[in-house]
Amino acid sequence: MLPRGFQFFWLAALLSIFSSCAARPPHEAGPFRPGELVELTRMVPGIRLDIRYATTHNFMGRVLYPQARAFLQRPAAEALARVQAELQPLGYGLLVFDGYRPWRITKQMWDHTPADKKEFVADPRKGSRHNRGCAVDLTLCDLATGREIEMTGSYDEMSPRSYIAYAGGTPAQRTPRDLLRRLMEAHGFTVLPAEWWHFDFRDWKSYPIEDVPFERL
User: Fold this and answer.
1) From 28, 148, 150, 195, active-site residue
2) Catalytic residue status for 78
3) How remote is the C-alpha of 93 from its chain's centroid?
4) What number is the average pLDDT over the span 90-117?
5) Of 100, 118, 143, 180, whose CB count within 10 A is highest?
């Protein structure tokens, strides 16, 4: 038998999952353009993935995605391919942590996050731009080695080091962070002020919140 502390942990986790599955995305009036979620590895030559939510290596500490895959709406994926093409002569490539996220996962994240850290997660009552297939979490990697480039803070770090305006760290950390922002913004993305890795595509309002699991894409 598991110790009492572990029993409580797993019971709380299961209750959170059941609650999220029973809940429904918020109603939206629309109209919306038809979505076309496409797989980034098929759309962006040379792109690399590190889908943390398909592992336990994330702030939730458990597997949330059954498959290590990343999707975006087609126009956003095409824009990302243009960013990748501009980075390659500089010796960099894109390393993606997350793209489209089913709404039920956003609900689990919100329920799990303490009140003083909720600026780092989306309110499921409004939905996330990830739910619309128009947000991507990413960083830079070294093309030659595949090594992730060090930034001012780590992915999903809930601290001021994640702010795009954070002036701390070293020049070697801030320079690639600012390069990533500059190129992403040049191709129609906007950075989230609290998360240097999170970028929203300009047409996100045109797409509905979705809750389609990866297995059906």
Assistant:
1) 195
2) no
3) 17
4) 97
5) 100
